[in-house]
């Protein structure tokens, strides 16, 4: 028999056990499961905060210190942790745990014992099942609650993408069973290089609160968009609140940030003051300006500050402060500490997210999981950043060089952080304009492309070609490019007054805010440029009469597509299915070929099936040009 059966059992137990001793929490022992978890790390005999420094920003070390200080045990379920392994990779685990004091025989605290069960598999299975159920029900799901739908409709559809500042936001509703509240946020780009930032809170919940929130937001947005200073904008909202009883005592923090100088002017109308976190993770609260809640007869003084490059400005609603079991002072200190860790990248790993995005998602997760929450929580973050350089490219008069332009333009869009939807629209619109310019420019002349992001968050792209731009003829298979481009972007104009033709498009760029739920929020990296290989055309060996296209269909490859499809369908006399799922780019020239092929099949009474799954580039373009697909 074992000399010490209890020690042997603990060593072999399938749960994590770590014992720490003394005020430094020196690791005194850990069982086999713990050693396997931290394989390759020198843990035993070292202070816990030093041995497992990777967990310092994730609250685990703080819990051990709290138990040693108070002598009170703590427990938690399904907490998430990121562990950096010796090879540099990151492992994500979820654990149910209990951390208890370790006492001497006389009752004095000797140290802390932490035990936990790795429930990663269960949590991942649950999350996978939830995602699968959501995917299956997405197109059939009804709005769960008309109040929630109203609140979300009144919030911004997206946050502007601006030069010199990165803006992010998140909001967490008070619970699935609670009526929506009156929290709101806004980011208003202003000409001249400044942005208006707002977080506000209407008293109460339900339809009335959501409706009042929409009115106050509209007033502040209009005044900030018109160039008003914070005091003037808040005064306009105050006049509304005096006329509308339900708006009285609403609070707001309204700020105007000059992106070029970092100068900040703000008014805290009964609202918590802004928090500033430096790029290195030093947090400080700005002084409150002393303004009164709206509609209460008070004044609205303005305070000023200056942000340094890399600083993150955080506006928030009081739901993040008024959490259960925390005094206002404790919650404010905790917010500052967690915000500092999130901005500096010391908390959860999210390599594709900006510091502003990490602040808006990780702060909520890390604070709420420890204390819970009673009220809606809204966060709005803005970080000063270097403005992007304009893109300038010259395209040779050769349609086979369009792929190189797409790669260059895609890298520029990625650096801006555009969404997949906006990148798709701009890539296709610019591709059409460049194709048209190459075809109609003077012989040997290059086509110039210039793209920039305006100070109001609009992508402006000019395509300059030398030569007269001919109007498309109705009977021509060409000429669809301008029509397609105009459907994809907000505005398209042509200038033929000079030697050639200049096409200019404008498209407003936005990124969505994070709507957080009870599950751990997912960090979404900026979209990467889609792979754009050479076009391949292959027969589907398992399905006779089916041809698979993959890659770009543009002006440089369209003649080959036309030849191959006509050959396989014998000029439209044989049924044909064209699989477009792998097509990364579908230009109007390719659309013209498909329209002509469809006409041939109709004339011969044979079937032509265009197959493109929902969400694919080809499906989106075919819907715009009224070509049916399956």
Give a structural overview.
The structure is a single chain. With 630 residues, this protein is an alpha+beta fold. It is built from 16 helices and 27 strands. The strands form six sheets. The protein has a six-stranded mixed beta sheet. A five-stranded antiparallel beta sheet has the order 2-1-5-4-3. Helix 6 packs parallel to helix 7 (207-225), helix 11 (402-416) runs antiparallel to helix 12 (420-440) and helix 12 runs antiparallel to helix 13 (481-488). Mean pLDDT is 86; it is low at 471-478 and 518-530.
Keywords:
single chain, 630 residues, alpha+beta, 6-stranded mixed β-sheet, 5-stranded antiparallel β-sheet, 16 helices, 29% strand, globular
Detail the topology: elements first, then pairings:
Elements: H1 5-12, E1 16-21, E2 26-30, H2 32-37, H3 48-51, H4 60-70, E3 74-84, E4 90-103, E5 109-118, H5 120-137, H6 146-154, E6 159-160, E7 165-172, E8 181-190, E9 194-205, H7 207-225, H8 230-243, E10 251-258, E11 263-269, E12 275-277, E13 283-285, E14 303-306, E15 312-316, H9 328-344, H10 355-371, E16 377-384, E17 391-395, H11 402-416, H12 420-440, E18 447-453, E19 458-465, H13 481-488, E20 491-495, E21 501-508, E22 510-511, E23 514-516, E24 536-539, E25 546-553, H14 558-568, E26 576-586, H15 588-604, E27 608-611, H16 617-624
Parallel strand pairs: 7-23, 25-26, 26-27
Antiparallel strand pairs: 1-2, 1-5, 3-4, 4-5, 6-22, 7-16, 8-9, 9-10, 10-11, 11-14, 12-13, 12-15, 15-16, 17-18, 18-19, 19-21, 20-21, 24-25
Helix pairs in contact: 6-7, 7-8, 9-10, 11-12, 12-13, 14-15
